[in-house]
Design a protein that fits this description.
Elements (H helix, E strand, L loop, with lengths): L1 H22 L18 E3 L8 E3 L2 E2 L13 E2 L9 E5 L5 E6 L17 E10 L5 E10 L2 E2 L2 E2 L12 E2 L3 E2 L10
Parallel strand pairs: 3-8
Antiparallel strand pairs: 1-2, 2-4, 5-6, 5-7, 7-8, 9-10, 11-12
């Protein structure tokens, strides 16, 4: 009887360890101080070194071909392979991590589409001259409600509004609610 109880407890303990390991397998917990979402886009204007970067503040990953992915734009002075963007959900769990050449399609690390909402991000840029630039920001996943996207009066910068040669262009091709 005593052996059966001990064996049962060991099996239960092992099951808990396995379950906890599975639930904490998300490798990029938000340990940075990027926990809030400013409304303004992450934008750095060109300086004398011609260093600039833009990250749109929102996108609509609904598969309609307009603003479906989040793309990062940057000048040739940025070392893309050494520059990393990390994005978390509201619980601090990582949903995207990649260099700035990669796009985010709005899916988490398990392939599920993320819910509409605000997602803190942390950008770690490396210039070709070895300068590090670290900056917090936010990107919002927007969803259609009926025939338009309700923004609550916030002006988001969507990917199709950005032309890196001339700056921002308006309007977006997504349908925003009046």
């Amino acid at each position: 009887m005593k052996r059966t109880v001990i064996l049962s407890l060991c099996i239960v303990a092992l099951a808990c360890v396995v379950r906890c390991a599975k639930s904490s397998s998300n490798p990029i917990k938000n340990l940075a101080t990027c926990t809030t979402c400013p409304v303004d886009p992450l934008e750095q204007t060109p300086d004398t070194a011609n260093l600039w970067y833009y990250i749109p503040t929102a996108f609509t990953p609904n598969g309609d071909g307009v603003n479906d992915v989040l793309r990062f734009w940057y000048s040739s002075r940025v070392e893309a392979d050494s520059s990393v963007i990390t994005i978390w959900d509201k619980n601090g769990n990582g949903v995207f991590k990649g260099n700035i050449n990669q796009i985010w399609d709005g899916r988490d690390l398990h392939g599920s589409l993320c819910a509409a909402g605000h997602y803190p991000l942390y950008m770690q840029l490396m210039t070709k001259t070895g300068v590090h630039i670290n900056q917090c920001g936010c990107v919002s996943v927007l969803a259609y409600k009926g025939t338009c996207i309700y923004t609550g009066g916030i002006h988001y910068v969507l990917p199709d509004e950005l032309d890196t040669a001339t700056g921002f262009t308006y309007p977006t091709y997504d349908h925003l609610c009046p």
